[in-house]
Structures are given as C-alpha cells and as structure tokens.
Amino acid sequence: MNTKRKFLRLPSVSQHKKCAELLRCFYTDAQRVFIDNYNEIQDWMGQPSLEDLSPKSVSDRFHKHLKYAEVRLREHSLLPRINKKDRPKPSANRIDVHLYLDQIRSAHNVGSILRTVEAFQLGDVYFSKDTPLPTHPQVSKTAMGCSKEICFQRHASPSELPRPLIALETSSDGIPIDKYTFPSSGCLAVGNEEYGLSDEVLSQADAVVEIPLYGKKNSLNVANAFAIAAAAISQQFRG
Fold first, then answer.
1. Could you tell me which residue ranges the tRNA/rRNA methyltransferase SpoU type domain spans (predicted)?
2. Closest of 135, 120, 147 to residue 229, by C-alpha
3. pLDDT per residue over 218-229, tens digit each?
C-alpha cells in the first residue's frame, strides 16, 4: 500500500516513464514479473491492463507512455528490434576493404556505421583520435552488438592506414562510386559530419569516389553515405 501511495504521488510524466521502463524490460527479457508489475500499476492509475503481449501491442503501449512522459523520440529510445533470423555465423567471408573514421563526432553515426560494417562483412575499422570508440555507451547501444563482431584500431593516423586509401567525399573530381573498381585490399575513408574529410586524409588519398546526388542538398548523413558505399563494395565483390 505504501508503494502504491508513493507511486501515485509522482508527477504524471514520472509515472509514465516508469510504465515505459517496465514494458522495455518485459520486451527485452520476456519475464512475467515485469508485465505483472506493469498491470498492477495500470490498475493503480485506473488504466486498462495489457493482455495482448505480442511485440506490436507491447510496442504500441510503450510509445503511448513515452508520449505522455514527454520523452522526445530518438532512435535510442526505440525498443530493440526483434530479429529471430540472425545467423549462427556470417554467410560470407570478410571483404578486405577496411574503413577509416576521420573525426566523426556522433556516437550514433559511429554505431550505425559499425552495424553496416558487420552486415556487409567488411574489414577492420580504424578510428581517428576524436572519434567515439566501440566502448562508448551510445556507440555500443546503436551498434546493437555488432561492436563485438568487428576488429578495430584506435587513434590511427592516415599514414598508418592500409593502402590504397580511397576517400568517400563530395567532389567535382570524384569518381562515381558505381564506376569505380575497388581494389581487392585497401581502406575507405569517411569524414566529419560538418566538413567532411580532413585535408590530411585528402592529401594522402590514392583515389576519391563520390555518390552521385541529384537534389538541392548535395550531401548525405555520413552513416547513410557509408551504407551506400558498403552496398556498392559488396555488390562488386559478391555480385
């Protein structure tokens, strides 16, 4: 009774945050204790219990609570995707094209990039000094476990990278990525969200490739651009 009284004294936003957290725990671990606790709280709040425990129903109720909790929806606020089709091991060997992350600031972008590296089974990832590492909590969360599946080198400088060094950059001198033949081994460099690749990387690049764009905004988010490049590399080597 004291627990109920204490809960009902909480502001409404705090109550809904607690409800959302219980649903997240149930969605992730599928332990009945979480949904029992949640339904008890719904009774306290005068709200209907959740009887349909399908992923969609749990997700819909979870996001309803986030709305009332005034939580701004970002990707890391989403429930983890349920995927029952993960393979016990990769279905293809790694492609020996590595990746250099040049001064990327966003941990979310880094995590997304690591997911793409694992998905397409590319080579090692080299991190510049100020790029968040796989051990960063937000990188790890966004990568959804892929950080453990790749090899990486921290605090790498351009002179230490595998060759040839291929710069992915919007440039009038760039080769359209679908026209470029990637070498059997090398390193692709992607750059900062604001200014792109550093002059140091561009000066040492053996080739510059670009993704042809046709809109007014002549740029893409770095994680999206890399995903396109990774798909092009995979298509070239695997058909």
1. 97-230
2. 120
3. 889 999 999 999
Same domain, 222 and 115: yes
Specify the pTM. Answer: 0.73
Starting at the earlier edge strand, list the strands of the sheet with 165-168: 152-153, 125-127, 97-101, 186-190, 165-168, 207-210, 175-176
In a domain, 91, yes or no: no
Q: Do the Cβ atoms of 136 and 106 come closer than 8 Å? A: no
Statement to judge: residues 159 and 187 lie in one domain = yes
* Residue 102 belongs to domain spanning: 97-238
Establish whether the linkage from the previous residue to 80 is cis, with ω within 30° of 0.
no
Q: What is the DSSP letter of 192?
A: B
Q: Are 109 and 82 in contact (CB under 8 A)?
A: no
Answer whether residue 198 is part of any domain: yes
Phi and psi at residue 112, to the nearest 5°? -65, -40
Distance of CA 165 to the CA centre of its chain: 24
Same domain, 124 and 70: no
Model pLDDT for residues 52-94, shown as the tens digit of each residue: 999 889 999 999 999 999 987 665 566 766 655 666 777 789 9
Dist. CA 30–CA 173, nearest whole Å: 54
**Closest to 127 in 3D by CA, of 160, 98, 154:** 154
Based on the fold, state whether residues 185 and 122 are members of the same structural domain: yes
Whether residues 45 and 152 fall in one domain = no
d(CA 61, CA 63): 5
**Which residue numbers in the chain have pLDDT < 70?**
1, 73-78, 80-87
Written as one letter, the residue type at 96 is D
Number of residues that this document lists for the chain: 239
